[in-house]
Every structure is written in C-alpha cells, then in structure tokens.
C-alpha cells in the first residue's frame, strides 16, 4: 500500500479547497467563511440572492412580523435546536366570575422540562379557591395587590398582602388561597417546580367536600350532616368573593396556631440590586435571602434600550424566562456547534437548557424586563467575559488572536449588563 507524504496530503487539501471555491462561484452570491459568516457551507441571507430569498408560498404576515429573526436568521446561526420560545399570548384562558388563568406546562412547551408557569388574574375580590398542590409554588405579583393565606406543615397560619415585585413561596402540600385586593385586583405569575403541574388540576377544597359521604363529613367536623346541605356540587376554582377584611383583622383571626418562623413572602424589588449601571438592573432572590424558597431561584432583569445581558450560562439548572415588558433577541449556543436566535415580546416564555451559552439584547425603544427562573436553591452563573479575564491572558490571546493588553480591558465580574 502506498504511503502518503505530507506533500500528497497538502496537494489533496489544495484540490479540495479549489473544488469548494469552484462550487461557491457556481452558486452565485455564496461567500466563503469569514468573520460574522463562519460556516461551510455558508449560511444566512448574506450568502443568497433575492430570487432565492423570495417566499411566494402561503403567508401569515401578522405572525411573521412577530419573528423577524425566523424569517432571516443571522449567518452565525447554525444547526437545529428545540423550539425554545413559547408564549402565554397563544394559550387559551380559563375564565370564571372572579378572574382567569392560562398556563404553559411541558405539554404546551416541551422544552420546559423543569418548571411550569401560570399567568393569573383576580379581579377586585376575586378568590382563587382554597387548595393545595403536589409541587412547590413560587409567585410574583406583576400588577395590583393580592392577599395570600397559607397553613404551614406545623399548623401555623400565614396571612399577608403583596404588591408588584413581591414574591411568595408555598411548599407542596401546604393549603392556601389567593384574593385580589382594592379597586383593581391583581395579576401574578405562578411557577411550579414540576413541569407537569397543571393549574387546572389541583387539590380543591370544594371537590373533596362534594366527594365525601355526608355522614363522614358530619363525623369529621362534629356537626350535623344538614350543615353541608348547601355545599357547591362543582368546584369553584376562581370565583367572585366579598371584599377582604383589613389585614390586621385577618391575621388576628388565625393567630391562635402561632406564627411561622420564616415569612412565606418576600419583596424582591426592595432588595439591593446585584447589578445596577446605566445599562440596567438585576435583582436576585434565592434561598440565601428568601429563606422559604428552597427549590426556586429567580432574577428580575431590566435592560435599557440597546443594552446587552452579557454572554453567560448557568451550571446548575435550566433558565425559564417570563418576558414582562419590552422586546428582545436571544441567541442560544450549544455543542455541535449549534446556535439559534429567537425574538421575544411581552408575555412570551423562553427556556435556555442548563450550561448552554446565551445573551439577551434589548431590540426595542423601551426598557426590557425579563424574569428568569431556576429550579435550584441558589442562583449560579458563569459569565464569559469574567472567565476570560480570569484566565492567563497569554492563553486567551493564543485562542482568539487578540492582544493580551486588550483582553485585560474586557469587563470583569458576573451577572453583567453592558450598555449599547
């Protein structure tokens, strides 16, 4: 068998390059790999022609306009990924007299493998029926005010009113209720640490009472069975209630069982931001400052127009996102290489799998606000720039062909937002 020399291999490589170049020329406007256009074969509209880019088929212009990056991905995108975008805006609402709810579980959003989410509205006096879950519940108020009522595992009751930017955490199995307060009621996001948990299938007080024999009810509560003659025969879920009593009176009415040692509510926006500069702010809540929240960590990120949530990844959990206001663009990077870019607007939901690199760019003219959730007791992040500035500069320089003196000017520190 003939042995190949270095010259033979070099000649074959040159022939292959020549063939590739000929194919690119034959393809019209196709360009070779370059900075910002790295793949072979080249990807993206920059490599194509107007005729090839045209789309004469059936159109839904309104939907297409919401996702411009899907119509023309950047040439740096490569490979395929699961759909990491979803939205409450496309989920049906379950509407009842006191309010409504809509949800995104793993059924509607297969990429969300760790948590499920619910967007819920309670009108003035609207009550989310007394109930409990198989999963832990984490909540944040996005507008209005809400009263939370809970009984903990030791039989101690907790009653508190919460407003925008304030959180709660209800351990699995702890019964609770929610009620809209004041003239506007409230809206809030719920997150369950089980991707299969449905808000439309919970353990409800009225369901259990209606499906228990009257004689058992009488014996259990020590009253006549006639007491239960007028119970609802169908669950209430969300219903219109009376205006809530003053908070102090409600707290006093349940004080006999004692007070939980740790509060089940927490004011996220009353804390000191972990990052605050001209590009935006980031607030953080996890088990280190919100002691009750043992399985959910969260960050509330506000990014100014043109601002960039720097390139980073999370080593301990998937990132589940709720886009509260504004609009933005995110690219997710994985091994392969694979990279895909997504557009988001208010009400949308996103997922970034654990350890996959990503950034968020504010592409709008107003502040962008994103709530990011992790099924983990504490927040963890690896920032790309922070990593490179804590690696010997001569080593980084050999990877990127960048002067070590310039690398030294890269931003340091984690949890970063960079101005535009």
How would you sum up this structure, described in words?
- The protein has 10 helices and 24 strands.
- With 420 residues, it is an alpha+beta fold.
- Strands 2, 3, 4, 5, 6, 7, 8, 9, 10, 11 and 12 form an 11-stranded antiparallel sheet that branches.
- A hairpin with a 5-residue loop joins β6 and β7.
Précis, in short:
The chain has 420 residues and is an alpha+beta fold. It folds into two domains: 181 residues, Sandwich (Jelly Rolls), CATH 2.60.120; 148 residues, Jelly Rolls (Sandwich).
Number of helices: 10
Percent of sequence in beta strands = 25-35%
Compute the separation of the termini in Å: 61 Å
The count of DSSP E runs of length 2 or more, i.e. the number of strands, is 24
The residue-averaged pLDDT reads 92
* Rg computed from alpha carbons, rounded to a whole number of angstroms: 27 Å
| CATH topology call of the largest domain | Jelly Rolls
The total number of structural domains is 2
| Most strands sheet | 11 strands, antiparallel
Q: For the record, what is the CATH homologous superfamily label of the largest domain?
A: Jelly Rolls
User: Which secondary-structure class do the elements indicate?
Assistant: alpha+beta
Low-pLDDT residue intervals, each spanning 5 or more residues: 1-29
| Bulk shape | elongated
CATH class of the largest domain: Mainly Beta
Helix content: 10-25%
- What's the architecture of the largest domain in CATH terms? Sandwich
Question: What are its keywords?
Answer:
420 residues, alpha+beta, Jelly Rolls, 7-stranded antiparallel β-sheet, elongated, disordered N terminus
């Amino acid at each position: 068998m003939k042995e190949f020399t270095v010259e033979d291999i070099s000649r074959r490589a040159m022939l292959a390059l020549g063939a590739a170049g000929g194919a690119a020329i034959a393809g019209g406007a196709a360009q070779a790999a370059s900075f910002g256009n790295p793949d072979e074969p080249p990807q993206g509209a920059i490599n194509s022609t107007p005729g090839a880019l045209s789309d004469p088929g059936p159109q839904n212009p309104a939907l297409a306009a919401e996702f411009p990056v899907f119509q023309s991905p950047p040439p740096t995108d490569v490979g395929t990924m699961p759909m990491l975008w979803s939205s409450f805006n496309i989920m049906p609402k379950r509407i009842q007299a006191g309010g409504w709810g809509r949800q995104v579980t793993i059924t509607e959003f297969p990429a969300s493998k760790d948590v499920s989410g619910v967007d819920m509205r309670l009108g003035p006096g609207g009550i989310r029926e007394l109930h409990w879950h198989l999963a832990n519940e984490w909540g944040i108020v996005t507008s209005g005010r809400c009263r939370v009522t809970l009984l903990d595992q030791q039989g101690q009751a907790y009653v508190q009113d919460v407003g925008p930017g304030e959180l709660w955490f209800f351990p699995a199995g702890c019964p609770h209720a929610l009620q809209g307060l004041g003239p506007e009621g409230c809206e809030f996001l719920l997150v369950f640490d089980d991707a299969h948990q449905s808000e439309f299938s919970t353990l409800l007080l009225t369901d259990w009472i209606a499906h228990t024999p009257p004689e058992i009810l009488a014996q259990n509560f020590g009253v006549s069975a006639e007491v239960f003659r007028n119970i609802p025969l169908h669950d209430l879920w969300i219903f219109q209630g009376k205006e809530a009593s003053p908070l102090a009176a409600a707290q006093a009415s349940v004080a006999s069982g004692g007070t939980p040692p740790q509060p089940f509510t927490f004011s996220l926006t009353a804390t000191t931001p972990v990052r605050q500069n001209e590009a935006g702010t980031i607030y953080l809540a996890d088990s280190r400052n919100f002691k009750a929240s043992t399985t959910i960590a969260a960050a509330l990120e506000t990014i100014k127009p043109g601002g960039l949530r720097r390139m980073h990844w999370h080593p301990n959990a998937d990132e589940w996102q709720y886009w509260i206001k504004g609009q933005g663009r995110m690219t997710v990077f994985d091994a392969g290489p694979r990279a895909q870019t997504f557009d988001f607007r208010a009400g949308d939901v996103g997922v970034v799998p654990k350890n996959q690199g990503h950034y968020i760019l504010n592409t709008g003219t107003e502040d962008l606000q994103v709530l990011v959730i992790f099924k983990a007791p504490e927040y963890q992040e690896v920032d790309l720039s922070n990593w490179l500035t804590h690696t010997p500069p001569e080593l980084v320089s050999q990877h990127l062909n960048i002067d070590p003196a310039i690398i030294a000017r890269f931003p340091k520190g984690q949890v970063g937002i960079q101005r535009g």
